[in-house]
Amino acid sequence: MLAKQIKDIKIRKQFAKNEVNTIALKFLQTYYFNKNTSANKLGEILKTKQKNYSKTKIVRRCIITNRGRGSIRPFNVARSKLRELFQYGIIPGYKKSIW
């Protein structure tokens, strides 16, 4: 479990670091270069960067338990822990329906 957390943190850092570079390369490729050798080199660079560190490889995880499944987006908490938070009244405004 700890290994997955460390891997996820590493992917997030690398994505944040390379995001600006990929946006700049895409801009250069589409607007400044024609279909010649320099544009092809930029395309190859983009492919390798997107393959290694892409946004889709980032996993949403619970901030309390680091669980990878059942994470509710607005709260960033797993559904089981979210239920407990609702039950004890830590998050107000929700009622127990059928638990």
How large, in whole angstroms, is the Cα Rg? 20 Å
Order of helices and strands: HHEEH
Total DSSP E strands: 2
| Helix content class | 55-70%
How would you sum up this structure in a few lines?
The protein folds into 2 domains: 59 residues, no CATH class; 40 residues, Ribosomal Protein S14/S29 (30s Ribosomal Protein S14, Chain N, Irregular), CATH 4.10.830. The protein has 3 helices and 2 strands, in the order H-H-E-E-H.
Using brief descriptors, characterize the structure shown.
2 domains, single chain, elongated
Description:
56% of the residues lie in helices and 4% in strands. The protein has two domains: 1-59, no CATH class; 60-99, Irregular (30s Ribosomal Protein S14, Chain N), CATH 4.10.830.10. The mean pLDDT is 76. It is mostly helical and 99 residues long. It has a two-stranded antiparallel sheet with strand order 1-2. A hairpin with a 4-residue loop joins β1 and β2 (77-78).
